[in-house]
Amino acid sequence: MLLTVKILVFIVSGFLRVGTGFDIGLSTKCVVIPKEMDMCHEIGYSEMRLPNLMGHTSMAEVVLKSTTWQHLVHTDCHPHVRMFLCSLFAPICLDTFIHPCRSMCVGVRDSCAPVLACHGHAWPESLDCNRFPADEDMCLASLTKEYKYLHKVLPKPACQTCPAVEELFTHKRVPEVFCDSNFAVKVKLSKKRAVIGDQEYNIECHVEFITQGSLLPYETQHMIQQWLLINENCTQRMTQTHRPMVYLLVGKIEEGIILVNQIYRWQRRDSQLTLATQKWRYHKCL
């Protein structure tokens, strides 16, 4: 649901640094944000300026270039990554262009560049933070301290070497692995048939805890989804076909970072993993 104008002004004011803006002039027009731009839906406004701040002059070009960033947005690599990118690809339809502040760009770049690097891409020159205004100018700034208390800090997945997907194991070995870990979750994965942009992955059912550790049930599904998006090389290995597969992900949380250390394929015909998880209820770690 779109926000009312009053609420929208409140949200924008929380990010806006007052100063002089860049005049749009008569060369731009207001257009509806297209449905293909998923990352810029439900952000508080439904119309954007065209051409945009990336210099894209046609909606076809906007859609083509923006969809390549949707994958990064879904990783939640930074709290402001969606606002930062949408302010450039789909700038709000006001009397002046509102750029993101340089500090917002730096924050998003420092958090999200490692995720791009994990996928083999460098932070693009088109998003060089030096091109954006300093915080004393009119621009979208990072949230102030008064707003930060609204955002709970959760453990974050990291780009990592993909553990081997194990299919041969014993019911005696698995509890030992559990004892050396913070969490073990059972997930069901499938691959979507993507029409535009990067491949997407589903967690088809609720995450089932084998051992919970410090993770909370209502947080874990989203965090596992983040891990799968960031470590796409691993996800591709687990989703060779569109047929759903079940896996057990075992890992640790170290200094606020989620690391998956073991991946087991959970096959119905193999009772070893089922037996191991049943025995875990009564197992005592040394």
TrEMBL record:
Domain FZ intervals: 25-142
Protein's cellular compartments: Secreted
InterPro entries for the chain: Frizzled/SFRP, Frizzled_dom, Frizzled_dom_sf, Netrin_domain, Sizzled_CRD, TIMP-like_OB-fold
Keyword Amino-acid biosynthesis: no
Keywords of the record: Developmental protein, Differentiation, Disulfide bond, Secreted, Signal, Wnt signaling pathway
UniProt GO cellular component terms: extracellular space
Domain NTR: 159-285
Biological process (GO), any one: canonical Wnt signaling pathway
Record has NAD as a keyword: no
Entry's Gene Ontology molecular function annotations: Wnt-protein binding
CDD domains according to UniProt: CRD_sizzled, NTR_Sfrp1_like
Predominant location category: secreted
SS bonds (residue pairs): 40-86, 105-129
SUPFAM superfamilies registered for this protein in UniProt: Frizzled cysteine-rich domain, TIMP-like
Residues annotated as signal peptide: 1-21
UniProt superkingdom: Eukaryota
UniProt cross-references to Gene3D superfamilies, sorted A to Z: Frizzled cysteine-rich domain
Family that this chain belongs to: Belongs to the secreted frizzled-related protein (sFRP) family.
Protein name: Secreted frizzled related protein 2
Organism field: Meleagris gallopavo (Wild turkey)
Gene that this sequence comes from: LOC100540103
